[in-house]
Amino acid sequence: MIEVSNLSKRYGAITAIDHVSFKVDKGEIIGFLGPNGAGKSTTMNIITGYISATAGYVRIDGYDVMENPEQTKRRIGYLPEQPPLYPDMTVKEYLDFICDLKNVRKDRRKALEEICEQVRIADVYKRLIRNLSKGYKQRVGIAQALIGNPDVLILDEPTVGLDPKQIIEIRDLIKKLGERRTVILSSHILSEIQAVCERVIIISSGKLVADGRAEELSAKLSDDHDVQIRVEGPEEIVFQTLSKVHGVKSVRKLGKREEGSFDYLIEPKEKTDVRRALFNRMAEKKYPILSMSSNQLTLEDVFLKLTTGDYDGGLSEFTPEIPGKDNAAEAPESGTEAAAAESEQEGSDKA
Amino acid sequence: MTAVYRKELLIYFTSPIVYAYLLVFYFFSGLGFNAICIAQQTNNLTGAIDYMFTISMFILPVLTMRLFGEERKNKTDILLYTSPAGTFGIVAGKLLAAATVYGVASAIFVVYAFVIGLFTAVQWAVFFCGLLGFLLMGVSLIAIGGFISVLTENQIVAAVITFAISLLLSLMDYIASMVSGIAKTVLEYLSYNTHFTPFQTGQIGLSHIIFFLSVTGLFAFFTARSIDHRRFSA
Ligand SMILES: Nc1ncnc2c1ncn2[C@@H]1O[C@H](COP(=O)(O)OP(=O)(O)OP(=O)(O)O)[C@@H](O)[C@H]1O
Ligand SMILES: [Mg+2]
Hints:
The complex is a heterodimer. Chain A is of the alpha/beta class. Chain A is built from twelve helices and 14 strands.
């Protein structure tokens, strides 16, 4: 359906994307991930035929985007990073214009009604776009991409600016749209990609660094299963006891997080699962385990691991913060700082 | 093309600047009509048209200054260039919309002609010939202005440059008089007066029509090329 082959784009000295290749099959929903400036929007602009590549090609249904633009553009609905809206038009005028532009003639009214229903903009239909809130503008942008019922949807950060309820609605919508369509969507919100996409493509500094199912990626990159536990009891004694549990290679103290208990990070010997042994031992000694979590890499971790050079496998998440620590002086750690921030953010997302 | 044309007209007529343009146009043409036609008791409108030729040089850039640059600035151009409409269709749609506004402004002359018709016989042939020249001249200036607006996202810069070019074109006779030989011939040929004045005497010269149409076509072509160059270079 979509074939991206050896795509490169240079802006003078800047290489925005560098030999990126991937294929998307009909009906797939692809998550396009990458840090700021990775080249996501650039790639999308090339796929949609807005700009040309310096090298490589893009084919949609076998048609080259540069050679057969009429064929490919009819098949694509595009929501650019910044929704392309005319502030002085009403939503109705705008969507009518898009219908004109995409040569949607028959059943226009019905099609528009359906789209407005899907993205929930019926209530602002008669209003001037300039007066809409950011979230509504974003929705009008999504509506625009859906007009003409394109087979391929390219959505550049579609949920930016939406409220949590809307985000969920739009995600569900994208999933639904993806049943019959091919969707590429970019996002910084990893949980979003995980919720919506079957496959994830990660680019960093213009290079493709990963392409696969989310679970596959995290499994492939996961180290052995570290375990983080919180145990009630005196720190030093619990630490000693933990160290002697069968299968444990090393234990790291993570400090106090909850009154009367301490956290520990346990690294098991190769390919062993120490969770049961830990439970039994602690029960024996009457030190209650308040929480235990297997430290498998989340997509978040995979992302950070692949897009920053100095990732430590998520350990930093558990490093107690040292007050007054000078971040600038700890340059190599900046990636892990970000890791902690990301994880915290995810935590609050779930909450 | 028709989609872009209709959208552009919609935007024009929701924008105060176009109403200001029309107001200024109607005001000055009324002034000219009064001073030239009524005061001199003539049934020939070409004097007033000739006078609006000069005024238009000043005010026409207002219609073209945001034609392309604004869309690029607001990133709405992505919408147009990723739609099935081709670059040339988009350019044509936009220029035609500007030309339509210009046409609406120029239509006031027909009203004046009818006013004259109330008192005396109108020389319709001469009048329409003059009006044709006026329209052709304006459309060619619109094409030039559109091209300038592709080059800059800044409306003021676009308007000033377009104005400067218009001024240069209208002063070409004067500049031509200062040189001689082949340069003189070239400059005289490029002068808008050379091609505009004959229309006002009721002569439809094919070469003059071709001149204005060529300028229009050439600049529309440059416009489309420079848009595509920006998108497809590098
Ligand atoms: N018109 C341009 N001229 C010069 N450099 C550009 C241009 N457009 C993009 N770039 C550069 O190309 C690189 C990739 O940009 P791009 O917008 O594709 O990133 P992105 O992955 O979409 O980032 P974000 O997550 O911030 O949206 C960046 O380094 C950017 O500065
Ligand atoms: Mg982007």
